[in-house]
Amino acid sequence: MSGNAQDYHYTYPVAVALGCAIVLGVVLFTVALVRALVNDPDLIEPSADQTEQKAAHPAGPGEFASDLVWPLYPFRQSRADVARVRRNVAANNAAVWRQPARWFFRDAKGWWVVFPVPAVIVSFLALASVTSWCCYLVYALVTSVSAGASRAVLGPAAALLRTAERVRRARFRTDAACVRCFHVTTWPAYQCPTCLRLHHDVQPGRLGVLFRRCECGTHLPTGASRAAWRVTPVCKKCGAPLAAGAGAVRDIRVPVFGDISAGKTRFLYASLNSLVATAAQAKLDVTFPDKDSQEQADFGLGVIRSGRETAKTSTNGQVSLTVRLGAGRPSELVHLFDAAGEHFRSARRPDALRFLDDGQGLVYILDPFSIEAVQRQLGGIAVPEVLRLARAAAGDPQLTYDEVASRLRDTGVPASRGRLAVVVSKNDLLRRAGLELPADSDAIAQWLWDNGLHNLVMSTRRDFAEVRFFAVASQAVPPGGPDDPGRPLRWLLTTHGIRLPADPGLSADGLGAGQRTGSRHPASSGSGERPARAVPGKHAGAPS
Amino acid sequence: MRTPPHVVTYRSVTAFLTALILLSIGLGFAGYGPLVVLHRVAQPVSHGLHLDRISG
């Protein structure tokens, strides 16, 4: 029976040998797996992932490289782990084959004289190798299927969240503005509170769907609407910190422009004073999110409420003031921009007036005392004190407007989609000097037309989608009162979706009786001067 | 750099699933199946040996 191949004295040892070979294969794989996942893993760090992403998708002008964030496991690390396990299995097999290969196939082929010993050893190792590779295939299959399933869930989920963010941004106009460099961006960068590293693109994606893990290990929420409240928003261009919620809340930018001494700064403070009063009536919080704005507002409101005169704006001073209407997530940010009038005489300079380019509603301050026709009329009847207080702007109102309009055209700003409030300032002084301005928009436009500014009236209506004319006194006038300086600002804000109580006498769309601009040109076609109606001098309030 | 927890979790899960599948395969094929086959193959031989022994 010893020659029979089916002798159990033969088959059982063979079975045991085969079992040992299989066990050896499993051990080879297990060692490779433990080394790859625990002892010596190929960890894809954020910097390595960023380098790969940069190579695959180079950042264009104005774009930023991928953030230093740990990528989600299924999107990158899973491939690295499978590759490392494969290398380790190959290395382990090479190690167990090294000596037998040298013995039987290279250096000492004489071993084959003891056949079948070499054949048995080779077969044993071959089975062990096949087993280890089969184990690897199982691992690779499990990892690939798991990663694929995860990507199939996470990918659409991230796309859905991105779409929701996009819709929200479009609906609430949440573009974030920097008040230092005037850069406006879809969403700002967000700063990690631990390592202070900036995250330029917090949208859900391969770096995180609901949360992302900064390189330092800190968890940050994805999506501007969530990140804006948990971490500090930072301007992508100049690195200045922005107001909490920047990129997540409605953000309205209102530049004020006009000639030197036209009354821009005083109008800004006076309209802010009116806005604060309006918000108080509506039980709406008004706060100033940064220290500079707070100090500037405290000073400006103090000047207006005490009736003091406004100092000339420095050509180097800060020209922005940020107001938060409401509190928390439903709040809205309003940026008011003001610059010294000297800048508007050469408005095409690129940097100083950068805020004009991204304004959603512009306010043009027109000093009535700078109008030649008005000056002629006042020549005979004006009170000298009034003229001294008025400190009339010296330049031609048309020139200042043309400079700004040219700048907007040159920089490609679609002003034809914007709104312009033309504000005739110092109405209280004009009244004291004996001239009475009409109250409604069309009538004011007609008054300007009749006093030689027909080109200005036509230009504004040609350049902007909607123009309203206001006559105000930059004083502490209660909201809705005559000469209320808050009306232009409230009109611009409400047309951009900010909820404010309607002015007394205003319709639901924020227009007062006679405030609607009917035709794009004044009813009068005449271009000759028509003297403003002189009224008996009545001295009212402090000078604006 | 410290391995993030989500990487550890994913690795643990995939390793556990792999071990589970390999164990199933091992028990199903490398363990029980071949032994049964070998036993069946060897059975006539052992039976013949048994007959030889009792007849002799």
Question: What does it look like?
Answer:
The complex is a heterodimer of chains A (544) and B (56). Chain A has a seven-stranded mixed β-sheet. Chain A has a three-stranded antiparallel β-sheet with strand order 4-3-7, with helices on one face. Chain A contains 13 helices and 14 strands. The C terminus of chain A is likely disordered. In chain A, a hairpin with a 6-residue loop joins β10 and β11. Chain A is of the alpha/beta class and 544 residues long. The radius of gyration of chain B is 23 Å and the shape is rod-shaped. The mean pLDDT of chain B is 80. With 56 residues, chain B is mainly α. The interface between A and B is medium-sized, with 32 and 28 residues.
Query: What's the SSE pattern of chain B?
Result: H
Overall 3D form of chain B:
rod-shaped
Radius of gyration of chain B: 23 Å
- The first-to-last residue Cα distance of chain A is 124 Å
Secondary-structure topology with pairs:
The complex is a heterodimer of chains A (544) and B (56).
Chain A lengths: L7 H32 L6 H11 L20 H30 L10 H56 L3 E2 L6 E2 L3 E3 L6 E2 L11 E3 L5 E3 L2 H7 L1 E3 L15 E9 L5 H18 L4 E2 L3 H16 L13 E6 L6 E7 L22 E6 L5 H10 L2 H7 L6 H14 L8 E6 L2 H6 L8 H23 L2 E6 L14 H10 L49
Parallel strand pairs in A: 8-11, 8-12, 12-13, 13-14
Antiparallel strand pairs in A: 1-2, 3-4, 3-7, 5-6, 9-10, 10-11
Helix pairs in contact in A: 1-3, 1-4, 3-4, 6-7, 6-13, 10-12
Chain B lengths: L4 H51 L1
